[in-house]
Amino acid sequence: MSTILVTGASGHLGRLTLRHLLERRPASELVGLARDPEKAADLAALGIEIRTGDYFDPDALTRAFAGVEKVLLVPTHAFTDRQTQHANVIAAAETAGVEQLVYTPIIRKAGSRFELPQVTEPDAFTVQTLAASGLRSTILGHPPYLENLPFYIGSEAFESGVRVPAGDGKVASATRADLAEAQAVVLTERGHEGKTYALHGGPPVSFADVAEILSEIRGTTVRYVPLSEEEYVERMIAGGLPEPAAAFALSWVRAINGGEWDEQPGDLERLLGRTPTTPAEHLRG
Questions:
Q1: Is the per-residue pLDDT at 1 higher than 60?
Q2: Taking 80 as the threshold, does the pLDDT of residue 182 lie above it?
Q3: Averaged pLDDT score across all residues of the chain
């Protein structure tokens, strides 16, 4: 019997992955890791063992990984010393005798100069640390989540329009549910060790395309209104975001406008065995 452990079990992606794993493996073969197990009580009620562990506590991680064959490392939050935390997870997995570790960095095109503060550098560090370890690994590159679209365009887009810095780049976002399902496939099937996948959703859309989709949904015109970067940040702050969060949102919008994630679905569609959820389907709810 092989045991699969998913970190971040109380978060969106970890919880969804464990629920998809339940469709493929018995609960007795699944473990969730959480800093506060009470926040994963719904998973425990389904028979999944929830172990306590903090990425900053190597000893607790080593204990939590005991008897585990595969670990899914869900990245911790940005601006929280990701490098130290992820290095601790990898080291603990080695110490505990874990055979395979699956990691989910943001997709970055080969040769890209794109830098996202507190995301791309820790991701690169984690991938390099994992490659230098004794663990078998699989890298599942993620695009931006479709669920994060309101963060970029604001929650009042139906009323005020899609107001973002000008650009015609497209983004092939995916839902967390689709990504979680693909992760469950990789964790329960053979042949994925040593592979790197780019889990683009699709079809790729620009912010102007998003305005058109919202117009079709509402039945009235939702305008695409290009702003300067300064206007965008000011608008986000006026909407209640702290300045660092507004600047972080701008970094994502810049990358989208630059076409950083504009590829068609490929790896995600193959792993799912179906077409990923489209932006229009997601926005219609």
A1: no
A2: yes
A3: 95
Nearest to 175 by CA among 201, 141, 213: 201
Helix, strand or coil, per DSSP, at residue 250: helix
Separation between Cα atoms, residue 5 and residue 187, nearest integer Å: 10
4-141 and 144-173+200-262+278-285, same CATH topology: no
* CATH class for the domain made up of 144-173+200-262+278-285: alpha beta
Is this model's pTM higher than 0.70 or not?
yes
DSSP one-letter code for 174: B
Tokens of 222: 């939702």
| pLDDT, tens digit, 9 for 90 and up, residues 83-142 | 999 999 999 999 999 999 999 999 998 888 888 888 999 999 999 999 999 999 999 999
- Bond before 265 cis per omega within 30 degrees: no
Beta-carbon contacts of 172 under 8 Å, excluding residues fewer than 6 positions away, are 143, 200, 201, 202, 203, 204, 261, 262, 263, 264, 265
CATH architecture, domain 4-141: 3-Layer(aba) Sandwich (3.40)
Q: Write down the domain spans for the chain.
A: 4-141, 144-173+200-262+278-285
How many residues comprise the chain? 285
